[in-house]
Write a structure and sequence with these properties.
- The chain has eleven helices and nine strands.
- The chain is an alpha+beta fold.
- It has two domains: 100 residues; 229 residues, Bira Bifunctional Protein, Domain 2 (BirA Bifunctional Protein, domain 2).
- It has a seven-stranded mixed β-sheet with strand order 1-4-5-9-8-7-6, with helices on both faces. The chain has a two-stranded antiparallel ribbon with strand order 2-3.
- Helix 2 packs antiparallel against helix 4.
- The structure holds zinc ion.
Length: 345
């Protein structure tokens, strides 16, 4: 009898001590298995009831029951505490995200391929006397279309699937050309600017299309600016970008509403001499659109087309970066993947 009494109080004490030490779900489960599961200490003790005499049962029955229900109650209380703690710590982790927890030694810092190429090209244009210009990504219809000689009913608006905002006439710019307008509105000629920036088009994403991409844009406005200035500038710039002497370029007539005449510029493939996968075996790569700034565009910016002329060119900076580094999936560029970025030192 005394023996059983001692056993009960010993179990009660041990259970309480063990439960106090619990601080995780796993430890809680260990306590359950030790005391409360089938064939665990308390259940085994309950089985001993049937070996007791009637008188003993009267004494020990309630004692054992009390031990069982009390232990289960304490266990439930502890379980609630543990769940609450877990939720709280998850919340704290979210709220108090420790930015210093990153170890610098573990990360190898590197610049994004965009940054590498932008710095290189900007330096080329700065050395030629151009100013680096910038413009907003959230644009007005006037700057993105109207002033660039793309009026409301112009078919060129159809090929630019535009993200329109709910605000009237506001959109995410579909090209960097509005920077030309901003620059001409701010400053009178002579004027030479170069700009890079994000553009947005509402299209499905795949390895070669993204709804956000980078473009670059250059413009020179002055007196007696002609196509030959354009050819010479583009040739020198491409030679410097691809680090080639005498890189051949070719122009063929093309149509862009904001230039007249307009051309598409191709360059000799810098990666091969007799055709490769980059140039699709043709040895030529289409690289940009260009032309002389349309008189209507100058007029929209209060510049007299009788007095001034200029050229403009634009190219896909994203495409150029992909070409230069042999990147085959556009989505990698905005993925933020460390393994991808680490490759560009
Ligand atoms: Zn090639």
């Amino acid at each position: 009898m005394e023996d059983l009494k001692k056993k009960i109080s010993k179990i009660r004490e041990n259970f309480s001590n063990d439960l106090d030490k619990v601080s995780s779900e796993q430890e809680l489960e260990n306590v359950r298995i030790k005391y409360l599961a089938r064939n665990a200490e308390i259940s085994n003790l309950m089985h001993e009831i049937k070996n007791l005499s009637k008188e003993e049962k009267v004494i020990f029955g309630p004692l054992l029951n009390e031990l069982k229900t009390n232990s289960e109650k304490l266990f439930e209380l502890k379980r609630n505490q543990i769940v609450e703690l877990k939720l709280k710590s998850a919340q704290e982790k979210k709220q108090n995200f420790d930015v210093t927890a990153y170890k610098f030694s573990a990360l190898k810092p590197s610049l994004h391929p965009y940054t590498h190429v932008i710095e290189q090209i900007e330096n080329i244009f700065i050395s030629m006397g151009y100013k680096i210009a910038d413009g907003p990504e959230l644009e007005d219809d006037f700057y993105n279309f109207e002033a660039l000689n793309i009026p409301k009913d112009h078919p060129a608006r159809d090929i630019q699937d535009t993200f329109w905002l709910k605000l009237p006439h506001k959109l995410m710019r579909t090209h960097t050309s509005p920077v030309q307008i901003h620059s001409m509105k701010k400053q009178k000629p002579p004027l030479a600017i170069f700009a890079t920036g994000r553009c947005y088009r509402n299209e499905a994403t795949d390895a070669s299309h993204d709804f956000v991409f980078m473009q670059a844009e250059g413009m020179l406005i002055g007196k007696n600016i002609s196509m030959s200035n354009l050819f010479a500038t583009i040739k020198v710039v491409l030679q410097m970008i691809f680090e080639r002497e005498n890189l051949d370029i070719a122009m063929r007539p093309s149509y862009y509403p904001f230039v007249e005449p307009g051309v598409d510029v191709a360059m000799r493939c810098p990666f091969c001499t007799s055709g490769c996968s980059v140039c699709k075996k043709s040895t030529w790569i289409e690289i940009m659109g260009a032309g002389l700034v349309h008189p209507n565009v100058l007029k929209h910016c209060d510049i007299d087309p009788e007095e001034y002329s200029g050229f403009a060119f634009g190219f896909g900076l994203t495409r150029l970066v992909m070409l230069k580094y042999g990147i085959n999936d556009i989505r990698l560029l905005n993925s933020g993947k460390i393994e991808f970025l680490e490759q560009f030192k």
